[in-house]
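Protocol step 6 of 9: fold each sequence in the batch and record its structure tokens directly after the sequence line. For illustration, a two-sequence batch is reproduced in full.

Sequence one:
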Amino acid sequence: MKNSHKLSQSSSKFLILLTGLFYLILVSTCEQPQNSQPDLSAIPHAAALPSTELSDEDKTKLLEATGKTISTINTVDLQNMLLASSDQLYIYAFWKRDCKECLNNIANLQAMNASMGQEKMQVITINVGDNAEEVNLAVRSENIAFETYQLKILDKKWHKLLDESWDGSIPALFMVNKSEDVFLKYYKSFDANELEAIIQTLII
């Protein structure tokens, strides 16, 4: 009887201990915060989501990656181009990316070309003084749609080969039509109306 009583007491203590342990586990589980979202704090860069806005560097790369490639010519090449300009009006617009008056002339020519059509005149732009990367970027940023060349200057007096009276300053426009014996040279910026008035007299 004594042994049975001791066994019964031991079993009761064991059940009480087991019940207490189960209760502690249950309480501990319930006290943990229930979060349906995963903890991203340990993931690198999780706190900063990438921006959809392009950086200035990316915008520059985008400009450089699209558009036409600019060819390089020398003064002799340009002379040959001027001599070969026949059958219609050819306009050569000399420019540099920091010459606002030059870019203004080109913008006005593009507006006229859009309304008149290429069968009336051909416009070729000649960049003077910029490097190849600057020319390509300027053509895209200024939306220059005309055939464009970069002039490789081999002689400081290159402009004298084209016009003895020219000091090489820009803006400059050469208007050529050999079949009509036209070779006009202008060293200034024109507004749209002035430019249209000159060109209209040459394409009638």
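Sequence two, same batch, same settings:
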Amino acid sequence: MQDVADELVAWLFARVELPVQPPVDLSQLAEKMAINDILDAAMAEDGRLELRDRRAVIYVRADLSRERRRFTIAHELAHRLLMHRTAPAVAYRRRLTGDNLERLCDDIAAAILLPRQWVEKEFIRAPQGLDTVRRMGTAAGASLSASLVRLREVHRWSHSLLRFNHVTDRWRLAAPAGVPPDLHRSLRTTPETNTTLAAIGRRSREDVVAALPLRLGLRSWVFPAELSVRVTIAIALVDLTRPRPPEEESDLLTGSLLVAGVKCNCATFGLQT
């Protein structure tokens, strides 16, 4: 479905003569797509496209973060794009309903904010690390999750991005991105996950390479990961394709140092494309 999204966005950018250079000016793009206004509103959903009396208005929930707001506007622009009778892949689009349609709009939104041509050119030699994900998100006005997923799609990154929230003295998995579908429902934290994140949070505010304990199904593993731990939020760039038994943790990393019982390497992720 992402190939269809990339084709549609390439066609759109060429038609409206908009440069393929993030950060994409969504207000300008909306104007060129005959959107009359983009308005903040108190609403339950993130966004909504309304067509009434020959006017097209995008409503956006007022309390969204900047990155989420941009993605929501791009998602609603995707709905507008799919209404265009001369856009490519007409037959394909007409078969889509419900969740599949919303998924395509998400893919189109990602392609608008993070155009394939730009991602291919600017990040072809970038290492698979948190710094790369941050640089992409900052340059495009996109979230870390959207940036990571785009890097997986365009440059075949193997890593997933996990977000943890600290709630009632425990680190809880909150928002995984780029996790393979067959692993998504079976991924869980363990007491050792909490110990690892807590130890890193006490000792460092820098990005840290460590062996991250997680559970897949009924079995516990450790995974090579790069982690950033703050007071209430932690993010981890994890290679879920490389599980190792906990007893082999000492072999996961070389040149590492011991921080409160956690194997870490604060210098480099060391897992590159």
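Proceed to step 7 once all outputs are recorded. Observation for sequence two: The first helix runs from residue 2 to 16.
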